[in-house]
Specification:
Elements: E1 7-12, E2 24-29, E3 34-46, E4 52-58, E5 91-93, E6 107-109, E7 118-123, E8 131-137
Antiparallel strand pairs: 1-4, 2-3, 3-4, 5-6, 7-8
Length: 147
């Protein structure tokens, strides 16, 4: 499910005045086949008798929340006082426009030796003045394909 399909409206007494939008509650309705169904409150209106009319949407568990991934293995500790050495020959390429929302970009894949951790990226239009445009963290996996 990629979107919220059902919306519910119900009334509660003043006893529940501390509820507010974005709170998650459960509702039960035999006629609808709901038994402690979790919903998210989206709107609360109070009438002249102090009754609260609550509008809630079905709570799509997993939607709009962080996805749990297994942790990725780290690169280990990089010796901070060791000379990192030069980078390997970088791969400079233009990605397909499908990946860049139709905008022209230049991508760079770089890596280095065992002590290499990241690099600052500088650019120049005249080979005299340079401007730092970003930082690359970690090594890219790239190479040549023969055949």
């Amino acid at each position: 499910m990629l979107y919220v399909r059902n919306e519910y409206e119900f009334t509660l007494g003043w006893k529940y005045c501390r509820l507010e939008p974005m709170d998650i509650v459960t509702i039960t309705d035999v006629a609808l086949g709901l038994n402690q169904c979790p919903v998210r409150i989206t709107r609360i209106e109070e009438d002249e008798f102090g009754e609260l009319t609550i509008t809630a949407e079905e709570l799509a568990i997993g939607l709009r929340s962080a996805i749990e991934y297994d942790s990725q293995a780290s690169n280990g500790y990089q010796g901070g006082n060791k000379e990192p050495g030069n980078i390997n020959t970088p791969a400079i390429f233009e990605p397909p426009l499908d990946l860049t929302d139709g905008k022209n970009q230049v991508w760079v894949a770089v890596s280095g030796g065992i002590n290499w951790g990241n690099c600052n990226v500088w650019t120049s239009l005249d080979n005299t003045t340079y401007e730092m445009i970003g930082i690359i963290y970690g090594s890219a996996r790239y190479g040549h394909r023969y055949g």
